[in-house]
């Protein structure tokens, strides 16, 4: 990646920019590219590196980056009482492209009611009809039949028949349970194939789709390994940021806005380091309180899933990717054609369904993966490795958890990881969703099309469990699906939200937050696509504010 980007190497003698964007993750790439393309001078500060290992290019290579500190912050939560006092491991993207460079690549918009709920909190600009237009603007889909639709920067691929044939047994089982078939899972409910952010067998992260093309213009600069330490202010107006670069302290100023795009973990961290957050906490840490805002870092939401493992009677990806010769053949296939299992993800099939007829809208996300794997120590880091027998996975997550947690700094040191307390299963409604989801998975696993290819379960399954056993198993084994959002939530009320519907920080000028932290509620599924959409919509708003003649948002 570094060779394809025009990087700024030094931080001295920098004239003021129009905009300073903090973070070159998914949102930062979108916002910076659009502002620069519109003619503004933009500086992007990224704490990570521009260098990307080869495994961030190879689609299935995210298993190799899962514990790679070069591209991953490798965070951990506090021990969670709802998970039997276990801590959760949170991989988060570190470097250009952010988490879009190391995620499982599933592209899913969410369900329409997710955004209607946003609109109830933050106004009509975030209703489904408005955000749908944003999704359509960023998407370019390569369908399974070769047809290309859309003209947006973000490539999306429907692998179609390239996915493992075992998936048809899952689809047939879902059909037997009466679930609607949705062959291309980009949005809406039903069961079908997941689409992924690749093109011709190569991952297309946000840096590839948005930032790299915009960096061809001299209006956009990218400075990596630059850790933002605080926002600079003149009264209530943000004027720039302070940052560290290779151990030296620097400042950079802007004439229009500072835009935080550091993600659901780091954006509240930067605000708190700048004196905007829970006043009692900041005072205790010796940080001057600029605004006592308990909502900064609050409203944390995340998806939590449990996985059930099964031995298969027929070959799966384990047979191809476990033996050394299988890996070699897959590597040769990929090198020659950009095809084969390395060109795909392992989250191949799934869906969004109602766990019980009483539910009025889909409340469960399903996953079916034609592979099973374990975490093995290799050198200093664990590695995800396929099991030595054919197997597959069934998994589910409740779509809209009611529990809310917090992220807070632990010191005034910007390099210190914050305290992450998700409060998993803290709401009784989430426990009922767990029970309903597990019972649905038991029915799916018992349906004849899947039962015909199942040799035996490996470990616990929900079959025969009562409610207490289901919850106990979930507490013992469930873990994050890596979708943290909401820690700088948008809304009308400064007492309960951090940014207004235009994503401006309440009570301040020239300061916005644009990333997953502004979600009022988590969307029903993978969150990268909604982040890209949010950044696209935010850029519309910023351009509208800076050029009144632009179309109304």
What does this protein look like?
The chain has 553 residues and is an alpha/beta fold. The chain folds into two domains: 1-135 and 204-301 and 405-420 and 483-553, FAD/NAD(P)-binding domain (3-Layer(bba) Sandwich), CATH 3.50.50; 160-194 and 304-398 and 425-477, Cholesterol Oxidase, domain 2 (2-Layer Sandwich), CATH 3.30.410. The strands form eight sheets. Strands 8, 9, 18, 19, 20, 23, 26 and 27 form an eight-stranded mixed beta sheet that branches. Strand 10 and strand 11 form a beta hairpin. Helix 1 (26-37) runs parallel beside helix 6, helix 1 (26-37) packs parallel to helix 14 and helix 11 crosses helix 13 (467-477). The radius of gyration is 23 Å and the shape is globular.
Ends distance: 34 Å
Supply the helix-strand structural class.
alpha/beta
CATH fold category name of the largest domain? FAD/NAD(P)-binding domain
Average pLDDT rating: 94
User: Segments where pLDDT lies below 50 for 5+ residues?
Assistant: none
- What is the number of helices? 14
- CATH top level assignment of the largest domain: Alpha Beta
Provide the β-strand percentage band. Answer: 15-25%
CATH architecture of the largest domain: 3-Layer(bba) Sandwich
Beta strand count: 28
């Amino acid at each position: 990646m570094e060779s394809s980007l025009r990087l700024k190497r030094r931080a001295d003698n920098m004239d003021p920019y129009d905009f300073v964007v903090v973070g070159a993750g998914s949102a930062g790439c979108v916002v910076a590219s659009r502002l620069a393309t519109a003619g503004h001078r933009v500086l992007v500060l990224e704490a990570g590196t521009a260098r990307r290992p080869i495994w961030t290019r190879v689609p299935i290579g995210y298993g190799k980056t899962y514990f790679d500190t070069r591209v991953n912050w490798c965070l951990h939560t506090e021990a969670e009482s709802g998970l039997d006092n276990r801590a959760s491991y949170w991989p988060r993207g570190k470097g250009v492209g952010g988490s879009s460079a190391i995620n499982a690549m599933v592209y899913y918009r969410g369900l329409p009611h997710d955004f209607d709920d946003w609109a109830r909190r933050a106004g009509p600009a975030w209703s489904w009809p408005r955000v749908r237009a944003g999704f359509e603007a960023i998407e370019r889909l390569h369908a399974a039949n070769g047809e290309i639709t859309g003209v947006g920067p973000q490539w999306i691929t429907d692998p179609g028949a390239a996915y493992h044939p075992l998936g048809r047994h899952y689809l047939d089982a879902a059909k037997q349970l009466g679930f609607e078939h949705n062959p291309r899972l980009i949005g809406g409910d039903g069961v079908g194939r997941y689409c992924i952010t690749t093109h011709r067998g190569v991952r297309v992260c946000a840096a590839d789709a948005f930032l790299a093309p915009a960096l061809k213009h001299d209006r956009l600069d990218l400075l990596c390994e630059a850790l933002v330490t605080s926002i600079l202010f003149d009264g209530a107006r943000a004027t720039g940021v302070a940052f560290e670069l290779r151990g030296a302290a620097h400042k950079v100023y802007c004439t229009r806005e500072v835009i935080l795009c550091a993600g659901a973990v780091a954006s509240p961290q930067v605000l708190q380091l700048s004196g905007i957050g829970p006043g009692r906490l900041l005072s205790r840490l010796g940080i001057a309180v600029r605004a006592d805002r308990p909502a900064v870092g609050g409203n944390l939401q995340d998806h939590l899933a449990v996985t059930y493992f099964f031995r298969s009677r027929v070959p799966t990806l384990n047979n191809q990717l476990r033996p050394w010769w299988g890996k070699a053949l897959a590597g040769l296939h990929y090198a020659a054609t950009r095809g084969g299992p390395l060109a795909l993800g392992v989250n191949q099939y799934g869906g969004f369904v109602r766990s019980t007829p009483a539910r009025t809208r889909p409340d469960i996300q399903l996953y079916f993966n034609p592979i099973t794997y374990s975490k093995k120590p290799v050198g200093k880091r664990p590695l995800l490795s396929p099991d030595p027998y054919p197997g597959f996975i069934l998994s589910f997550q409740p779509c809209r958890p009611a529990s809310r947690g917090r992220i807070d700094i632990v010191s005034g040191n910007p390099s210190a990881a914050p305290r992450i307390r998700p409060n998993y299963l803290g709401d009784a409604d989430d426990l009922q969703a767990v029970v309903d989801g597990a019972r649905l998975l038991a029915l799916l696993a018992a349906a004849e099309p899947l039962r015909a290819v199942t040799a035996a379960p490996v470990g616990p399954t929900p079959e025969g469990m009562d409610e207490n056993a289901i919850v106990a198993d979930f507490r013992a084994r469930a873990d994050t699906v890596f979708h943290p959002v909401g820690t700088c939530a948008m809304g009308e009320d400064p007492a309960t939200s951090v940014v207004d519907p235009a994503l401006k920080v309440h009570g301040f000028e020239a300061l916005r937050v644009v990333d997953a932290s502004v979600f009022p509620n988590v969307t029903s599924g993978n969150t990268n696509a909604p982040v890209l959409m949010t950044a696209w919509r935010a850029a519309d708003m910023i351009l509208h504010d800076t050029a009144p003649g632009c179309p109304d948002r």
